[in-house]
Amino acid sequence: MLALGIGAFVACGAPAGSDESQPQSDIPRQERLGQGEAIAENLCASCHAIDRTDESPHPDAIPFRVLSRKYPVRSLAEPLSKGIIVGHPDMPEWQFEPRHVESLLTYIESIQDPQDI
Fold first, then answer.
1. Cβ contacts of residue 8 below 8 Å, gap of 6+?
2. pLDDT of 24-60, one tens digit each?
3. Given pLDDT bands bounded at 50, 70 and 90, which one contains residue 1?
4. What is the pLDDT of residues 51-99, one digit of tens each?
5. H or E element that contains 104
6. How many helices (H) and strands (E) does the chain have?
7. Pair 55, 82: CB distance under 8 Å
8. Which of 52, 59, 61, 63 would be a feasible disulfide site paired with 47, CB 3.0-4.6 Å?
9. In Å, what is the CA distance from 54 to each residue of 16, 58, 62?
């Protein structure tokens, strides 16, 4: 299952024909949102709620929509790029490339409960 998630993540990481060295700021926000949502669906949804209404399948996994209650969402950039190993006790260690961190954080920011921002 983990291999499937990683394979799907790699497949959705960069749009077909895109230059992987392209600065993230040059990628349109809608494209970053789509990439971030795909990353969340492929790597995170088995434990975390990844949208505005669902429940986390894993009881110790914080729903993404309320992450801003615990952390400034942008503060997660460094742990995601260096290998996040915190969270629920059985959380796999993920290490993301900067372009994937930006996409995932753009998506997470887009689903935050407006009361928490």
1. 38, 42, 43
2. 568 899 999 999 999 999 999 999 999 999 999 999 9
3. very low
4. 999 999 999 999 999 999 998 999 999 988 888 666 667 888 878 899 9
5. helix 98-110
6. 5, 0
7. no
8. 61
9. 30, 12, 11
Which two tokens mark 115? 């009361």
Phi, psi (deg, nearest 5) at residue 42: -80, -35
Structure tokens at 95: 């290490």
Q: State whether residue 100 is helix, strand or coil.
A: helix
DSSP SS3 for 29: helix
pTM of the model: 0.74
The two three-digit tokens of residue 104, written as one number: 């995932």
DSSP states of 3-23: HHHHHHHHHHHS-TT--TTS-
Residue for token pair 């615990």: 70
Instruction: Give backbone dihedrals phi and psi of 68, rounded to 5 degrees, phi first.
Output: -70, -10
